[in-house]
Structures are given as C-alpha cells and as structure tokens.
Specification:
The strands form 3 sheets. Strands 8-5-4-3-2-1-16 form a 7-stranded mixed beta sheet. The longest helix has 14 residues. Helix content is about 20%, strand content about 25%. It contains 7 helices and 16 strands. It is α/β, with parallel strands linked by helices and about 280 residues long. The protein has one domain: 4-Layer Sandwich (Metallo-beta-lactamase, Chain A), CATH 3.60.15. Bound molecules: fe (ii) ion (2 copies). The site of one fe (ii) ion has 4 residues, from loops.
C-alpha cells in the first residue's frame, strides 16, 4: 500500500514563518517516489512559498489541475517555468470561459487566464474525463457523477459574461490514493459536491473506507439543509480525518470541527500531512 506526504503550498491562510496566503489552492503530493503538483493557486505566492518551504518543482513530472478556476490554475505558467515539460492532467473543459455572477447582477471572469491557457495548450496536456491512474499510484476521478439531490456546484457559475448559460463545472475532479489506513482524497473545490465525490471514489475502490479528506468542499454558501445532509453523509462514510480548507467556508468548517471532534484540522500554507505510515 502507498504512503504519502502532502505539503500545502497555497491556501487561503498561512501557518509558517514567512509564507504567504491567497485565495487559492496548491498541494505538493509525494508518493511512490514521485512528486505531483496538484493545482497551482492564483500565481502570486507559489514561487515564494516553495522557497520558504525549501521545496522545488525540478523533479516534479506530473501536474494535476482539479478544474479551470483562476484560483487553481493561475500559477500554472510560473510552475511550468520551474519544471521540465511535465505531464499535465485536466479535464478538457478546464479551458472554457468561466464567470461568476456578483450580487449586483454583474459578472466577473474566474476562468483560466490567456497566459495559462496558452501554456497548457503548448504543454504535454493529457485530457482526462474518466478515472485514470498516474505514476506513483495517485488516481484521478475524471468527471464526477452528480447524484446527491442536495448538492449543486456551490455558487452562481456561468459560461458567459451575460450569465445566460450555467456552468456545471464538469471539469471538476478530485485525486485519491489507497493507503494502509484507507483511501486519502484530495479535493480542489469539490464543485461536483463533496458527497458525490466521496461516494464515487468509494465506487471506484471496492467500497474501501475513506480515511482522510483534504481540500476545498465549497460549502461557504451552502444552505442549512445541505450542510446537515453533508454532515450526515460524512458520518455514514465514516471519514476518519478531515482537512477542510480553501472554499469550505468558516461556518461549514466550524460545524465539521464541532461534529467530528478530534478529527478535523485546518491546513494553512506550510502544513505537512502524512498518511499510510505505521505510527
Ligand atoms: Fe472553483
Ligand atoms: Fe477554488
């Protein structure tokens, strides 16, 4: 079984001397002798944090983009400048235009910048819509089936600036890996729904227990009913350890911490999470 180490490179909060925070997400995953960069943040702090955390991307051969939003793909071009032509895995819809509707009805662009889109199009880009296993044993879900009736994409997302065509964010995908303790799941924003994602991963792993979940759960605008049903599902899934961060939202993270005492931790920039080791 695999062991792994995950270093938080970019997150909304900072937890070590000299590292910086931004609204975004990037993890360095080490498993099976491989290093994988999962998301790249907005691009303002990635390089700085790598240096402060004594980490480099020179030996990273694989990049995963959980979806096309700016806070996960903004650092792609900067990351690639530190790497040697890595394989980049993402859903093809990651490069589609993406907008968020503001409270006043106006829209803001929240997709991949032209710079990063160009970098992706000229890279070793592997388009993933189905589950796939990468070197090192890490697996990707591809598009996650939307089954739970109480889960939606988590916000007003559109494919056009006029907010005419809703964006289902079909590019959203998660990573997962089996360890001696159970499956470890790494989420980007979980726009497909955290429960949909975890249940799908269980269906892909012979219903093995999910031990650890790390990443954004996109519950910051969730209704009370959605939060309640999400907590119920997490209890049924018997998830042992959770690191809700980024877009999970303060209220939802607080509820998780209160309802799963001793099992929930924050993971600001600089946090290192190990899994699958005998300890
Ligand atoms: Fe997102
Ligand atoms: Fe996000």
């Amino acid at each position: 079984m695999n062991t792994l180490k995950i270093t938080i490179l970019v997150e909304n909060t900072a937890g070590k001397l000299g590292v910086l925070a931004e609204h975004g997400l990037s993890f360095l995953i080490e498993t099976g002798g491989e290093k994988i960069l999962f998301d790249t943040g907005q691009g303002f702090v990635l390089k700085h944090n790598l240096k402060r955390l004594f980490q480099g991307l020179e030996n990273v051969k694989t990049v995963v983009l959980s979806h096309g939003h700016y806070d996960h793909t903004g650092g792609l071009s900067a990351a690639l400048s530190m790497m040697n032509n890595p394989a980049i895995y993402s859903h093809p819809a990651a490069i589609q235009p993406k907008f968020g509707r503001n409270a006043d009805g106006s829209a803001r662009f929240i997709g991949m910048s032209e710079l990063n889109k160009d970098a992706l199009l000229h890279s070793n880009w592997i388009r993933t819509t189905q589950p796939i296993e990468l070197s090192g044993g890490l697996r990707l879900t591809g598009t996650v089936p939307r089954i739970a009736s109480f889960e939606d994409t988590g916000g007003p997302f559109y494919r056009d600036a006029a907010c005419t065509y809703p964006d289902p964010i079909e590019d959203d995908q998660a990573a997962f890996i089996g360890t001696g303790h159970g499956t470890v799941v790494i989420l980007g924003c979980a726009h497909a729904g955290v429960v949909n994602t975890l249940r799908y991963i269980q269906s892909l792993t012979d219903n093995r227990p999910i031990h650890t979940v790390i990443g954004g759960m996109h519950l910051h605008s969730a209704s009370e009913e959605r939060i309640h049903r999400t907590l119920t599902a997490l209890r049924e899934l018997n998830v042992r350890r959770m690191f809700p961060c980024h877009c999970t939202g303060f209220a939802a993270a607080a509820r998780l911490a209160s309802e799963f005492p001793g099992q929930v931790s924050a993971c600001p920039v600089g946090t290192m999470i190990s899994a699958g080791e005998d300890s």
